[in-house]
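PT: before anyone asks, these are the final sequences, not the draft ones from last week. 954 residues across everything. Please model them as a single complex and drop the result in this thread when it's through.
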Amino acid sequence: MRSSAWTLNRKASLFVKPEMEPLDHHKGENPRILFFIWLTLALTAILISGLAWRQLIDRDAYEVIEKRQTERRILKPGPRGDVYDRRGRLLVGNRPHYSAVVYLDDLRPEFRSRYSKLLKTARAVINERFNEMPPEERPDSLPHPDYNKLQWQARKEVIQQYLDQINAITGREDRLKESQLIRHFNENLLLPLPLVRDLTPNQYARLVEQIPPPPGSPIQIHTDTARYYPYRELAAHLLGYVQNKNLAPEEFPNDGIKTFAFQKKVGRSGLEASFNDELTGTTGRELWRVDPLGFQDTRLELDAPQQGQSLNISIDIDLQRAAETALGERTGAAVALDIHTGEVLALASHPTYNQNHLSPFIPQATFDQINETGAWLNRALQLSYPPGSTFKLLTAIAGMRHGSIDPETTHHCSGVYRVGNRVFRCHARNGHGNVQLADAIEGSCNVFFYAEGLSMGIDVLSAEAQRFGLDQKTGIELPYETKRNIVPSKEWKREATGSGWVPGDTANTAIGQGFLLATPLQMACFTASLARNETRTRPTILARSPHESESVDHGGEALDLTPRQRALLWQGMERVTGRDGTGRLVGIDDFRTAGKTGTADFRAHGKEVNLAWFIGFAPVENPQIAVAVMVEGTEESQAYHGGSTAGPIAKDLFLEFIKQYPERAGKLAKP
Amino acid sequence: MAKLRLEKFKPLVALAAFLLFWWILPASVKSFTRLNLAEFHAPAWLVTTKIDQLSDFWAARNHSKIELLEAGRDLARTNARYQVIAQRYQTLEEEIERLENLLALPPHQAFHHEVARVIRRDLNAWWQHLLIRKGRDYQIPVGAAVIFSGGVVGRVVEVYAYTSRVELVSSPRFRMAASFEGDSRPVVYQGRIQSGFAPPRGEVSDVPQDLLTTSRSPLSLVSTQLGGTFPAGLKIGTVPWLAPGSTGIFQTGAVELDERLHELKEVTVLIPLLAPEASSHVH
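LR: through. Structure below.
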């Protein structure tokens, strides 16, 4: 009834006002419609206000949230700087480090497809088992497959399939570890997953040619850098090595955007550690927009990484090679210094290791092997040893400054010297007879220095050694220099052992034995100071510019010997490398060398072994190079002596110096 | 009226149905169809090239005797020059072989050469691939290197009964290991999308920092045998500039390819005599 009335009404109204819209005749009349109009308007206003609030007032907060959700940053550390020797030869560089990687994003469809197949198979197996079970043992409902496990299995199978493809091309037999995959998924989803690291150039070239470029295959050939040491074992301890390390939290920008980072290389020893800040490159950044699942979509920003600074160091690789070749398979160290500037020309320590085996990462087997041979230690500065008879030079200086030694001072050496109840021996069983200072240095007479040491006393001797800085670190820019440099004194012994000083201790100290401990680097500095007529040498591993070399302040003071005393000392040292000296094997025709040999007793590796020392400088008329060589016995049966074991190594260093620097070696040098 | 409207959409509906049908077809069926289509077309393309050759032949016959005599004389001179070079080459090869035997070096990857005529080059993919007139009938394998007098042409990607498809060096889907002349370090060469008929170009990446080049004396990019597909020393192109790459240590640059790639008539396929070994067996 109502419907027909409405129809009539409508027809009538249409007839009367054909131009009116259907709702027009309710306008302003029907309160229900008015209510809904106002309600709609109010709700729309609320909606618009809310939208405006979020868009205009809360905009910044929402922008941050949006960025957090949709942007990801990748940090890529820059390559490290190069290291060159004093003549510009590359000692440490970067080589390409090739890996085959996959971006998991590219594999998502395959993951899904493999997962579906695995799920189907798993369900079929469950059904089959369920049906095979006796009805009374059947559970109420079908058990569910382990979805999570199947998902990881699917991912692993897909990736392994690509790894197999690489294996077929390269001839490798790599397998993917599930733990590696899970870790990568959880921590570095945006970064490529490395399938094979450190490909050889050959394998790299084969993969480049046989695997289609993207989008043909999800496998990508990734090129990174690894540290490269062209001279392999040479100067390994000095140059050091690097280790891969995650970026520190403070290196991540604190703006809320999730950031992934490739590992950076950090210096762990040698120069790589000392100059880590200079060598480290600038980290590059990439900003990516990602999809809701976190896979990369569009690159928004790229800031390429920059290589670190290069270093020019003072080493001459030819001298370094000469030192290491001469050391051979023996355990020990050799140091050569530029007498005027304190620049380290060579710094060798054996046993050593091939640094390329530690790059791009240190395999556990290599680490264990180096550990076993004790090759991690830089024997030139990390271990201290009794300096043996090389210390007699310092005893001589102390004696001359104290006034107990003059050119006429003579002692009779019968081969033994009695101090209280103890008998101290000279290495010459039948004695040297009557000896003066130059004779005592030439023949390394213990008796002369026992007598002089006791005459001046430990206080004078100890003070003189301290004046040369033998109780301190040299301050070279290399890490882990030992603090265990001992110049014994009465106070020291009381503190260290709780017992008092006895004359026998002084006698031992005077010939470089007893409690005395010094590093080969310290003894090289001592020799350079002696040659320069000063007390200190500040060694440096950085190459000095010609301007810097003109005026180097080594600290310390003048030697404080009269020209006559100095001449006497040098005469003795020159006679050491002469025809009848203990270091006669060091002698070079037409080239004047001065030095001192030393053979010390030492307890190492649980055995009593010999230490062979030689310190010296050349050419005598215009000293340019100072060397210190120490060879450490490893077996009790090894009879090492300063003159016959360490001396020839020093000679090789002098010969190489003549060859490489004929003008500095003097006009008599034969290149 | 409505019927008329439906009539208009019939072709579109048919196309949509066909596309849908094609889309749901298994990949193996699609591949089979594509292959058969290529095989079906091949005789037509072969005939076209034969006709081209015939027309060239008749055109040559129109030359005067004097022109032919001159051409013959020039050819004889060129032949004589090449014979001298070939003799020298032979002597050098024997010397290399002798030295390799002395040093007990493993044999080089040897190739059998097969000269093939270019029979088709699609205008839409001019710089991407071409079709050559030899296929399974000449034992052409997939992956074989293809070269011409100017250096690298590309790689065989599909082999049919009488034809083969070659991915050109200028194609973005072509990638190979390369090295710079006089430097053994491997770099990556990849083709790129070409712009019209401009000279073809490619890209080189992973270039060591110490390599410098200028447009006046550009570096020459050549093939390396490390990849196992190409023999060493074949020219790919020249690199007039290099710029720092995104790694901070390697450079990238543009490679100018040989312009003669534009008008290839004949190419040579290098068929390896030995199966390529895995790199671990190569010293």
